[in-house]
Amino acid sequence: MAALLRASGILRGVTDDLAATPVPASASAALTDAPIVAHVVRAGFVESVHHGTAVVTAPDGSVELEIGDASGAVFPRSSSKPLQALAMVRNGLANEGRLLSLACASHSGEDFHVEAAREILAGAGLTETDLQNTPDYPYDEAARIGWIASGRPKQSIVQNCSGKHASMLATCVINGWDLATYRDPSHPLQVAITDTVRELTGAEPSAVAVDGCGAPIHAVPLSALALSFGRLAAATDGPEARIAQAIRAFPEYLGGTHRDVTALIRGVDGLVAKDGAEAVCAVGLADGRGVAVKVADGSSRARSVLLAAVLRRIGVGSDDVLGMLEHQPVLGHGQPVGSVVAVGV
């Protein structure tokens, strides 16, 4: 087939070294065994479906609710950030409150986020030129439009992970660790993060990859991710409690003014949460239960709907808060003509 395509010119300009193409890795059970969890309904017709996996863990790690196979590993993506920040605190990062929440954040790039990231850097004697996270525009729509309209290019300081990277650098300064290689998996900071992920999740990472921002990310079972958030949320002292308290007190620094994760944390007492790319979200409850969801195709429109359905099932959250998560309209000519709805949860 490849030879036929070359002959026809379809592969012209594409490398002939097809043997060098990596063989795709097999997907985990959290994806391959994921049931349908959401319908995309347009004018009463099911237009598309989303598959997903969800889990609720008890404080001891036992599974209280499982949809799909939550033993399968996933990349938590930015849902890992509170665990990464915990490793930093354990290694001397002294920031509290809004600055510590920003260390856990996928922020929207609003002015107050950018100012806080610069504050973290300045406190460590650094500047934004030391950041190695991928340059980008602000995530928030209004901030992004304003940034582009002013003629400014993509920059690391406004990218959603700048708080984490600034905090990583600050931790390196405290410990005298090399700044140029702080993203390397063998760097002392990243080794400490791996150890913390292993401890809090109770699982050995099955894969390590490069996250969107350039830092390492670890694959763990979805149930293990839920367990780790239950442990954070239930902590009453120590570094874990500092992380949870910062997130609860300053959720707008974790997300942004218009983010659903911010509204969720504000709306449920004692809850901590962190959303991640590719439709992952982890939640910890003050009683030690953990919740984690993953939509198999990575669609964020189904992620919040699935999370709301799971929280409703376990009796967490008001109608106002859960309704906000469930609000995923399907548009026709700019007007709502349907919605994304949870099924089988």
Helix run count: 14
According to CATH, what is the topology?
Answer: Beta-lactamase
**Kindly, what is the distance between the CA atoms of the first and last residues, rounded to a whole number of angstroms?**
43 Å
Work out the radius of gyration: 21 Å
Query: How does CATH name the architecture?
Result: 3-Layer(aba) Sandwich
Structural class, from secondary structure content? alpha+beta
Hey, roughly how much beta strand do the residues contain? Answer: 15-25%
Low-confidence stretches: 1-21
Short description:
This protein is an alpha+beta fold and 345 residues long. The chain is 40% helix and 19% strand.
Explain the overall architecture.
This protein has one domain (48-342): Beta-lactamase. The radius of gyration is 21 Å and the shape is globular. It is an alpha+beta fold. A hairpin with a 5-residue loop joins strand 8 (280-284) and strand 9. The protein has helices at residues 2-8, 29-32, 81-90, 97-103, 111-123, 141-149, 162-175, 188-201, 222-234, 238-249, 251-254, 260-267, 300-313, 319-326; strands at residues 36-42, 45-57, 63-67, 73-74, 207-210, 216-221, 272-276, 280-284, 290-295, 329-332, 335-342.
